[in-house]
Design a protein that fits this description.
Chain lengths: 153, 506
């Protein structure tokens, strides 16, 4: 499998990159194509928790993009109840073989830190975000407290 | 003169040759002949210079100013002649040749070479001289070279235009040679390759290994091609050179790729469809035609008819709705009930009926093809939706409702079939519209379902290209029905639904 070498290196790089934004980069013991990453947003209201992200690589990676989705519930205008979101960098039409998982993670992180209420997936949340920001912050914080993972010490 | 000197000279040259790259040391005399003086040329290249981007400026004979950019300076030549008593007594006789150095640079370099020879008497100095030239050029205060001041022009005369041409060629040669001999890390496979196993894209200058580039293009070409092959870097829009794609795909796949791109370009242009003849499938044009009719009540009537299509290649004229031979304004031959009946009969047990069908349609093969087509259409009707722009049938097997037609690069909404804004297709799912907030409605979790990564969407490029139901066509028993309708409606301004193109004349 041609993807192995690249995935191993990317996994190593991601584990050791020293960026505080994500931790616990792991892949399934028997399957290098399935990873989980713990995303640590640094902006309110998500900076109190950690969010698990699942990454599934296709067998012909890196010629086809990985699939990325949240496994932890998150209250966010751009993420739906099942953890799915639209990230241009990993769509079939935009994907480039040189795109790194780290870049994908950074793109996702910036989407989480800076919601795009003008391109929402959950219109209700986006509306709340724009029209009643205070309420949004409160709901999102509570949601984060209730559903998110613990941030590693 | 001693044999020792000769031996030292040959030894020095051997060492020099092993330090320099191939072909950089040229013999201009016979070194094996003990009686001949050793002569040669060292080509001094500048591909090791830290920031080698150089601009060469000048004014051509016609008075035009030019400015050329180089990645690497064209090499200069160091000619040497070794007297028989070099290095024990004499210094070598050196001469510098350059297409672009000006008088001052030339003088500085030559003075430095003389100094090196004087400082290193009784020693081999060729390598020191070679290195000194590189260091001197590296320290040039400016990276702009004024070609009109070139020393070689003053010395030998000659035209600046031919010199410019020569330098351009040399610069490219030097850059190419440098590329071929440099080690690159491929950002896709994380392996290292020499330049000759790599592809350098232009104008972005990104470099990837041939193997990854070719694998990527083959993988793209085997799927649905929607745009020209690009550089592999994230967000980079540089297009690959034709010969590279050709080499990657091989003749057969490349021909297919090329046709797809050309057809796509044509499709984006005019009202064009695919010729329905299986052996042709080239581009056909739908013609706008005005039909004039003389009605019973002595009124003239004309309307616009757009279902006539003609193949540009085989000249087949067909109805764009049912894809059969053009049948004027009479209705398409196949009605929904007919199709179902035929399929049922063919799948049934009555051999007599089947034999009849074979006679009617010219053999079992044809009936089978026909039945298969009907089944396909049926399946497509219930499982796929046509792209609102090019009508290709698209099946959605996962992901959100923002669809992307890879055939014509149109975004559309799976829920309401509206074509979406190219820049911001998600806008459609916001605001107060009917599809607002429904981007992922009813989409189940793809992680649990799918093991292998397929395309974001799987597209059925359907052979017949027909997504039409014959019922939608302008289908009427011409005059009587028209007459009836005109009377019933009592006006000629606009047609009823489904006949929007019908217009009335006087």
């Amino acid at each position: 499998m041609s993807a192995t070498r690249r995935l191993q290196k990317e996994l190593g790089d991601l584990k050791n990159c020293g960026v505080k934004a994500y931790e616990n980069v792991e892949c399934e013991e028997t399957n290098l194509l399935k990873w989980t990453v713990l995303l640590l947003p640094d902006k309110e209201p998500y900076n109190k928790g950690a969010f698990k992200v699942g990454i599934t690589f296709p067998v012909d990676y890196p010629f086809k993009p990985p699939k990325v989705a949240f496994e932890t519930k998150i209250y966010h205008p751009n993420v739906d109840e099942e953890g799915k979101f639209c990230l241009p960098i990993v769509t079939a039409e935009n994907w480039k073989p040189a795109t790194k998982t780290e870049q994908v993670m950074m793109a996702l992180l910036s989407l989480i830190n800076e919601p795009e209420p003008n391109h929402p997936i959950r219109a209700d949340v986006a509306e709340e975000f724009q029209k009643d920001h205070k309420k949004f912050m409160k709901t999102a914080e509570e949601h984060t407290r209730k559903h998110s993972e613990k941030r590693p010490e | 003169m001693t044999d020792d000197d000769r031996e030292t000279q040959l030894f020095e040259l051997e060492a020099l040759e092993s330090v320099l790259r191939e072909n950089k040391l040229t013999k201009t005399s016979d070194w094996t002949n003990k009686n001949a003086v050793i002569e040669g040329i060292i080509e001094v290249g500048f591909d090791s210079i830290s920031d080698p981007k150089v601009t060469i400026e000048g004014t051509s004979e016609t008075g035009e100013n030019f400015s050329l950019s180089f990645d690497i300076l064209p090499p200069v030549r160091l000619k040497f002649r070794l007297p028989a008593d070099y290095p024990s007594v004499s210094s070598p006789i050196l001469e510098l040749e350059s297409d672009w150095m000006n008088q001052e640079q030339m003088t500085t370099c030559e003075a430095e070479l003389v100094k090196i020879c004087e400082d290193n008497l009784m020693m081999g100095v060729l390598y020191l001289c070679y290195q000194a030239i590189i260091d001197l050029i590296d320290q040039l205060p400016t990276r702009v070279i004024k070609l009109n001041e070139a020393n070689v022009l003053n010395k030998n005369g000659g035209s600046i235009d031919s010199l410019k041409k020569k330098i351009l060629g040399k610069g490219e040669e030097a850059a190419e040679e440098h590329f071929v001999n440099t080690l690159f890390d491929c950002e896709v496979c994380y392996d290292s390759f020499m330049g000759h196993n790599c592809i350098k894209f232009q104008p972005c200058a990104h470099v990837f290994c041939k193997s990854c580039t070719f694998d990527y293009y083959r993988s793209m070409a085997k799927g649905v091609v929607s745009k020209a092959m690009q550089c592999l870097a994230e967000g980079c829009k540089s297009e690959a050179q034709e010969n590279i794609v050709k080499e990657a795909l091989g003749d057969e796949l490349y021909a297919k790729y090329e046709v797809t791109l050309v057809e796509k370009a044509i499709r984006e242009m005019a009202d064009s469809v695919e010729c329905p003849r299986e052996n042709c499938q080239k581009v056909a044009y739908v013609t706008d035609r005005w039909v004039f009719m003389h009605l019973k009540n002595h009124r003239n009537f004309c309307f616009r008819q757009r279902n006539l299509a003609e193949c540009s290649y085989c000249q087949f004229s067909f109805c764009n709705l049912c894809k059969q031979t053009f049948h004027g304004i009479s209705g398409c031959k196949w009605k929904k009930g007919d199709k179902e009946k035929l399929v049922k009969q063919w799948q049934g047990d009555d051999e007599h009926i089947k034999a009849d069908m074979c006679r009617q349609f010219g053999g079992e093969k044809h009936v089978e093809a026909l039945v298969e087509r009907f089944l396909n259409e049926e399946w497509l009707d219930s499982n796929s939706k046509p792209c609102p722009k090019c009508s290709v049938s698209i099946e959605k097997n996962e992901g959100c409702h923002k669809m992307h037609c890879t055939k014509c690069d149109t975004y559309f909404c799976w829920l309401c079939a509206a074509a979406l804004d190219k820049v911001d297709p998600y806008k459609h799912f916001q605001g107060d519209g009917t599809c607002s907030g429904r981007l992922f409605e009813g989409v189940h979790n793809f992680f649990e379902e799918e093991e292998e990564g397929d395309d974001h969407l799987f597209e059925m490029a359907f052979d017949e290209g027909s997504d039409y139901e014959s019922d939608d066509s302008v289908d009427f028993e011409i005059e009587d029905q028209l007459e009836e309708w005109l009377e019933r409606e009592g006006h000629f301004d606009d047609g009823p639904d489904g006949m929007g193109d019908l217009e009335a004349g006087d």
